[in-house]
Design brief:
By secondary structure, the protein is mainly α. It is 67% helix and 0% strand. It has two domains: 221 residues, no CATH class; 99 residues, no CATH class.
Length: 366
Amino acid sequence: MHRALRNCALLLCLSALLTACERSSPEAMLDNYSERVARVLEESIDNRLDSAPAITLLPPRRQRLLPLTDLRQGLIEVLALRHCNLLGLIAQRNSSLGKVMLPSKQLVYEMRLLSQVRDCRAQLAQSVNAHTDKATDAQLIQQLDSIYSLKARELPAVLWNAIYASREMESNFSIGDPPLPLSLNENQSDGSEAALLSLQTLAELQTLIATPNWQLPTGLDQLEQHYQTLEANRFGSQWLKSVWLLSQTLELTAQALDRREQRRPICPQQRPTPRARILLNVFNKYYAGEVQPYMARVDRSGQRWKTLHQQLLSSLPATAAMRDYQWRTFADTNPDSLWQTYVRARDHHIRSWQTTLRHCNLMPSR
């Protein structure tokens, strides 16, 4: 008997823990909010936050990858320039590992190569008068100029591939990750700041290579750590899911408020009713107290994430497939983009609440 009671108590505790865990998810919080509004309004809200999110899929890698000119053979033709220390880089690129470099590794290689070719060209120009075979020196300078010109022209494409053809960035556009977690205490982090700093570092490389006579950044050897941060945090994927969840909840709740006003206003005489006061309590406790803080955090961090991607997509030679993806996901000028759908739902939700509370003479005084 005692064992049965202990087992029953254990099951109840487990059930309570599971319920608490469920309640701590953004989906549960948003569902709870919309269900409470629906109950007071006597209107149905079919949120379906567990359905597949309507988020545009990232194009496959082949549609994100830009072709690059392979000049390994061309560089071998200048092997005579041993004093320029190009042989080590050439050997690295021609090794078995060099031929299958990750996009991030290729970016580091190409930046180092460009820097050394530029330095080598300057050295030759200074010493050309000291050599007896001036014709050979001039030919070598011409070869280096040709290589540098092509490599410099293709460096934005190399950087593009290093960012948008990487596995780590692909993870940040997945639609399979959970949303950003709910509010955190001071000892917790949702990874957004670390991911944003890593993306900022990649965006700074775009600014750097657009500057004439740029110099190799001091942290180039640590670039791989930023990719590891992006892979570990996957902030972008979580943010996309959060934006979709919020868009769904806010728009459907706004529609329910509108329907109730059209069908039978909560306050037909524009004076507070008992039902209106219950609705105001839902607004204060569950929207202002739970939904709005979460929405503010998603909005704040997402604006930075979106801005950095828009900078990269507008400054680098994006593929056609990625420009279309950007249009469908981030674009401020596309009314049907994921971002603008969220903005429209957010604004509609605010207007609908204002209309209902104003008709009930319950608008908060400033």
